[in-house]
Amino acid sequence: MDTERSGGRFPISAGILFGLGLGGFFDGIVLHQVLQWHHMLSSWYPINSLENLKLNTLWDGIFHSTTYIFVVIGLFILWRTALGDISTGRANSLLERC
Q1: Half-sphere exposure (CA, 13 Å, Cβ side) for 87?
Q2: What per-residue string of b and e applies to 20-49 under the rule 16 or more CB within 10 Å gives b?
Q3: pLDDT for the residue 45
Q4: H or E element, residue 8
């Protein structure tokens, strides 16, 4: 999922993972927790009992964990790319390509 750009490789996969992860952070923090507009399964299991609330909260946590993993993997891909650039003498290449 990487592409050639400005004479070097920019990890497009890292950008996709960061986008998914940060979008999920926004949804999870703002819509789920602050505004409490919805939960992950609230359209299938409405919040009309304690059991349904526990189920929805569990799946909210799974969703938040997944978005966190996306961001960590995206960061790892960027780090590996930058590490490769440092070893080849192109330390500023990630910033130059943005």
Answers
A1: 6
A2: bbeebeebbeeebeeeeeebbbbeebeeee
A3: 84
A4: strand 8-10
d(CA 69, CA 82): 20
For residue 61, give both structure tokens: 């946590």
pLDDT of residue 87: 59
What would the two tokens of residue 7 be?
């004479």
Question: Given a cut of 90, is residue 7 above it in pLDDT?
Answer: no
Closest CA to 1 of 10, 78, 84, 22: 10
Q: Tell me how crowded residue 6 is: count the other CB atoms within 10 A of its CB.
A: 10
DSSP string across 13-51: HHHHHHHHHHHHHHIIIIIIIIS----TTTTTS-SSSHH
